Amino acid sequence: MDKWLNHPTALKIVSVVLGLILFAMVHIDPETSPQTTASSVDTKVIEAATIVPTGLDQSKYVMTAMEPTVTKLVVEGSISKLLAASTDDYVVSVDLTDAKPGPQELPLTVKLPRGIKEVQLSPRTVVVQIEEIVTKSFDVQIITEGEPAEGYVMGTPSILTENGSSVEVTLPKDDMERVGVVAVTLNVQDEDKTVSNKKAKVVVYDSEGVEITGAFVTPSTIHAEVPITLPFKQVPLQIRYSGTLDDNLSLVSVRPTIENITVYAQQDKLDTIQVYDGAVLDLSKVKESGKMKVKATPIDGIQAVSPGEIELDVVVEKTATRTLDNLRISVVGAPAGMKAVMRTPESGRMSLQLSGAEAVLADVKETDVVITANVEGLAPGVHTVPLELELPPYIEAVLNDGQPLTASIEIVDESASSGGGETEPPEDIEVGGTPTETPDPGEENSNNSGGSGNETAEEGGASGGDGRNTGTRSLTT
């Protein structure tokens, strides 16, 4: 045996046998049949590969449905390539290039990474629904939610976008027929100032108020605003005056460019406001006819005014004077059972010199001047009573040489004199003359300081003096 083992040929045979045994030990899988060997090729299963639609002309059509939306994909390749590829590298698509409106069944195509091949695709087709799209113009409305803070009111909402409230809405033809309103929404809950949104989203709703998703809107946002203010109303505008005109000038007219003004206040205060007279014209700044602007400021519980500035058309002329004679003095306020008897002037009439612009004076009639003596509350006896004047706008009384603006009136108790005695002249005897008695101290006497007693002015202005006592030339009646 030893001699045989030492033979070279025997050693070669033994070496070959041992090599075969070692090869078998390395490559044969003990868990499988003797014929199954290990391999570097494997498979991968993607249970829900998303189907991607491509090629659709989106300017004309829209895909509204696809069934199914995923498919099962089985692929095969080397282990290394399968491990290197991500799920996104496996693309399953449906080509809609030649699709037409309506339902249709189309085949699926698969794009795989290099070195990987398709084993199975299930299903291999899908059913898609294609619809024609249309574009239509709509005016955007503003929907408000909630209520403003207590005491405040909501004004009219507005669209402030430069191109206005019109937008273009693109939808499938069937959905376009369901459109009810196109709107933006602003929340005003507990707000005490104007709510504004420069990028309010435009939403399309159907006739039942449900949002239609998928609508394409151009522009998609707009600038919307909802005014939140105190309660307000419009009232007549009345101009007041301060200062005095130069001695040689008188007002002909003061005409605001607006007749009414908007005032804002709490409701209880607003209910009491009948006129706004917070705009004041400083006459000392008026040197000639022309345009002037005055501020409109909040007064007497008014919290805001709009507009805040008012333009006036002011006309002035040189001052003139005119005397009106035989003006009747009216006595008012006599107590029950008492009679007022005019003593001075006896006739109950007087003359009065007026000052103002020539154009204004020329139109003044005797009936435009009201002279009143108020005897309310006076006891029987003779009293010096101040006279109250009501003059046309921009007209003043001129009292020369200390002329008082009073009358002497006797209050007579009719019940005491009914038994006989001297017969008293009738009440309000009409006589001429100028009062000569001096008024009681502290009593109001004249309107030298700028008041005519008339609080209502032409064209919304308030009358009043400009501080002059004399005119520059006279007119005759």
Number of strands: 31
Q: What is the top-level CATH class of the largest domain?
A: Mainly Beta
Task: Tell me the fraction of residues in β-strands, as a range.
Answer: over 45%
State the distance separating the first and last CA atoms. Answer: 175 Å
Q: What do the pLDDT scores average to?
A: 83
Helix content: under 10%
Total domains, how many? 4
Largest sheet: 10 strands, mixed
Q: What's the Cα radius of gyration?
A: 52 Å
Uncertain runs are 31-38, 419-477
Structural class: mainly beta
Shape: rod-shaped
- SS element count, helices: 7
CATH architecture of the largest domain: Beta Complex
CATH topology of the largest domain: RNA Polymerase Alpha Subunit, Chain A, domain 2
